[in-house]
Amino acid sequence: MVGILGSWFIKLLAFTIRIYDYPKGFNEKVQTTHAIYTFWHCLILIPAYVGRNKNIQVLISQHSDGEYIAQVIKRLGFGVIRGSTTRGGARAIRTMVDKVREGYSVAITPDGPRGPRFVVQPGCVYLSQKTGLQVIPTSIGLSHYWKLPSWDGFRIPKPFSRALIMYGDPIPIPPNLTEDEIEHYRLLIEKIMNEMTERVDNLVREKELAKSLHSDK
């Protein structure tokens, strides 16, 4: 029941929201641009709608609340892999490697499932090493939203607001890295994602958003 109601809630809510993407048109390229997409845990609602039915596997934690999320996104057309950096991590990575070899992309919330908020865990770096897929950092700006009192400050966009999903440049990760090099790439992804989040939050609040994005190119 949670899965059915949750998926319909996302579809109905997103229908009222004007969704932009940057670079323009990239939302339609997601299905054919195979990569590891990373976005913050508190911003999953818009990606869940935009990425539906696009051949994407999503890593969901084995915590109890992860089951609710899994049921929702399954009904939005995503594949689900259960595990995280703390529980079931090795098995989850093996499964994701198999799915990538079958032609799927992967989506990860690198600060999940329990935080710290806006801090990248090294799982996306390990996965990129194992699969050869590049990491595409992604962030979402919401012009108006409700903020829940959860560890991540989960954001629910308000009806008839604007959302901007921004895709960063792909980051290639070499297959053989030392621990220091893994930390370098972890920090790099974290820095880029936080910079993108600040930028996209400012952009989405501009009244003439479409003109701003056009001039920004």
Topology:
Elements: H1 2-15, E1 18-22, E2 36-38, H2 45-50, E3 56-60, H3 64-74, E4 79-82, H4 89-101, E5 105-108, H5 123-131, E6 135-142, E7 145-147, E8 155-157, E9 162-167, H6 179-204, H7 209-216
Parallel strand pairs: 1-9, 2-5, 2-6, 3-4, 3-5
Antiparallel strand pairs: 6-9, 7-8
Helix pairs in contact: 1-3, 4-5
Key words describing this protein structure:
217 residues; alpha/beta; seven-stranded mixed beta sheet; two-stranded antiparallel ribbon; 9 strands; globular
Can you tell me about this structure?
- The protein has helices at 2-15, 45-50, 64-74, 89-101, 123-131, 179-204, 209-216, and strands spanning 18-22, 36-38, 56-60, 79-82, 105-108, 135-142, 145-147, 155-157, 162-167.
- The termini are far apart.
- A hairpin with a 7-residue loop joins strand 7 (145-147) and strand 8.
- The chain is α/β, with parallel strands linked by helices.
- It has a 7-stranded mixed beta sheet with strand order 1-9-6-2-5-3-4, sandwiched between helices. Strands 7-8 form a two-stranded antiparallel sheet.
